[in-house]
Amino acid sequence: MKIIQSIIIFTLFLSLAACSKKENPKEHLVEIYKIALDSIMEKDKELSSDMKYIAIDMKNFDELTKQDKSEILSYFKEKYKVEVIDMSLDELKEKGLFNSNTMSLDGVLLRIKKVDYKPFNNVLFEGSKYRSGKGSTVVETKIHFKDGEWKVKESKETQKS
After folding, report:
1. In the chain, what are the domain boundaries?
2. Smallest Cα–Cα separation from 42: which of 156, 122, 126?
3. CATH for 23-160?
């Protein structure tokens, strides 16, 4: 009977040890940001129709280096086969990339408004995809580390116009 108890306790210990494996999200920021931005990009595909570019507003990506940001831009350029730039809405307007006739962008603007590091290898992002005042969506995405990789656990639109 003691052998069975010992086996059960040992198995329980191993299970708890495996569950407590922590992965530091801050060591994988480029991968996590790519996943978060891509989850936003996948929402409301109509906003992406006939887009000429993707603008990603990286002004508040304080934890990322210039090289990290460049890697993210390259990833989106390769995946979506359009020009990808780091610009805010105001910068897009200044550069003439906002169509004043249609009151819209000829591309899409992705923004991350909030990043919240949660327990148990979870990172919560709140971001948006913008095409015009009447064509945008706000997305909340939870990313977690599971089976040796970072992936979307949940992604939902919280506001749409």
Report:
1. 23-160
2. 156
3. 3.10.450
